[in-house]
Amino acid sequence: MDTKYIVANWKMNGNFKLVQQYQDFFSQHVIKHRVVVCPPYPFLDQIQHDRYDVGAQDCHFEINGAFTGSISAAILKKINTQYIILGHSERRVQFNETNALVFKKVNAALDENLIPIICVGETLQEKEIGQATAVITRQLEESIPITQKKLMIAYEPIWAIGTGHVPSSEDIERIHTLIRRLYPEAPIVYGGSVNKTNIHGILNIKNVDGVLVGGASLDVSFFETLI
Ligand code: 13P
Q: In 3-state terms, the chain is what percent helix, strand and coil (to 5)?
């Protein structure tokens, strides 16, 4: 199997013990794939390791200013962050993030030469009424600026996140192939209920360049299956 991307999104979870467990595990093992670890902001600086890259889970679109509680791509860059997850459905739904806002954040990340991981995906209702392709195409077109710089795209069906439900291989391949046609250069990762058992099957699907893993990444033993 080619080298794939394994992106761990801790969301609002984790603690210094988990940071240490990651560092210990990766000091002792070599993973066959490219790993990106995305913990909450306070751990970004501490979790650094030469066997993986580090990513944030969001950023503000401005470089600096009076935006209490926010963090800029410029600040993230200074603490050795290489990636930023943007437009995750939890931000789109819980914080009303629109495609237009995600577009501005993606530009901010690219301006700092950080690699945005731009998330798209349909709701169950959109899937059931046959709108998945249209919704995803629109999210892509409106969230991603035209650029020569490196970016990554994550397909995360909202109904598959944290539910234990995963789309059929055919459906994953169909959406990834659609994204590939629009963005031939970008790695495309799948996210939504990836675990130790299903990861290998998912990584073998055509046009899947890796996975974005939530809950399962909170136990570092998840990576044992990738040694
Ligand atoms: P789960 O792996 O917990 O379903 O989360 C997926 C996700 O949202 C990763 O960004």
A: 40, 20, 40
Count of alpha carbons within 13 angstroms of residue 146, beta-carbon side: 0
| Distance in Å, CA 193 to ligand 1 centroid | 6
Do you know the residue count of the chain?
227
DSSP-based three-state secondary structure for 144: coil
Instruction: List pLDDT tens digits, range 70-92.
Output: 999 999 999 999 999 999 999 99
What confidence tens digit (pLDDT) does each residue in 147-156 have?
Answer: 999 999 999 9
| Cα–ligand 1 centroid distance for 80 (angstroms) | 24
Rounded (10°) CA dihedral 193, 197, 199, 203: -140
Whether 31 contacts 51, CB under 8 Å: yes
Q: pTM surpassing 0.90?
A: yes
| Angle formed by the axes of helices 169-182 and 132-143, nearest 10° | 30
Q: Using CA atoms, how far apart are residues 132 and 92, in angstroms rounded to an integer?
A: 16
Q: How far apart are the first and last CA of the chain?
A: 13
Pocket test of ligand 1: the residue of 6, 193, 196, 199 to mutate, having most ligand atoms within 8 Å of its CB, is 193
Rounded to an integer, what distance in angstroms lies between the CA atom of residue 167 and that of residue 187?
A: 19
Contact in structure between 17 and 32 (CB atoms under 8 Å): no
Q: Which residues contact 184 (CB under 8 A, 6 or more apart)?
A: none
75/142 Cα distance (integer angstroms): 26
